[in-house]
Amino acid sequence: MLELDRKQMSTIGETQLRNNLADFLNRHLGGKAPLQLDQLDAELDAVINHCRKAGLRSQRAVAAYALACSLFGNDRVGNDPSIAGILADRNSSQMDRALLIEMWTASAYSDFRRGQGASYV
Question: For the segment 92-117, what is each residue's pLDDT rounded down to a tens digit?
Answer without folding.
Answer: 999 999 999 999 999 998 988 888 87
